[in-house]
Amino acid sequence: MKRVMLLLPAVLMFCVTAQAQDVPRVEIAGGYSFLDANVNGSSFHLNGGFGSATENLNSWIGGRLEINAFSGIASGRSVTAQTFTYGPVFAYRKYERFTPYAHLQLGAIHASQGFLGISASASKFAMVGGGGADYNINPRVAIRVQADYLMSRFLNLRQDNIQFSTGLVIRFGHR
User: Fold this and answer.
1) What is this structure's pTM?
2) How confident is the model at residue 8 (pLDDT cuts 50, 70, 90)?
């Protein structure tokens, strides 16, 4: 009986370790991003790309740094915008084929002259909230689909923008 009592904690510890190996330590993602920029009820569209790095602290929470770069035409002028944000990401890792998540990130947006009518390039506060899902191709690679609300503040006005992204996720290590 004593052997069984000593063996039980060891078996449970190995089971917990095996479950933890399903969580990647780091996820690197990149791909296409689309921004529907909105100012005073009128909007314009910008295309670009994104890159992100996520460190998973455990199976359900991590920290994500995300950078987006956009360009396009607004009011006949070529404009660009870049966002730099960081914040927590909450994942629900109960499904084998996909991992839904939600995130809230704070940071900055830098825009060129003409973006939302500004007269000179500027950097302002930005907040991104949203979520998406990673569709697993295999344990190391997934396809990401994401939709976000991007709040920015230029010309003392709040802009409510929508951002869509899709790309490839590469996973490294195990937690």
Assistant:
1) 0.79
2) very low
Question: How many angstroms separate the CA atoms of 29 and 3, rounded?
Answer: 47
Q: pLDDT band at residue 86, thresholds of 50, 70 and 90?
A: very high
Lowest mean pLDDT among 5-9, 50-54, 167-171: 5-9
Characterize 36-71 residue by residue with b for buried, 16 or more Cβ atoms within 10 angstroms of its Cβ, and e for exposed.
ebbbeeeebebebebebbbebeeeeebebebbbbbe
Which three-class secondary structure state does DSSP give residue 61? strand
H/E element, 29: strand 26-39
> Which domains occur in the chain, in start order?
2-172 (2.40.160.20)
Q: Is the dihedral of CA 15, 16, 18, 19 positive or negative?
A: positive
Q: Encoding tokens for residue 162?
A: 């929508």
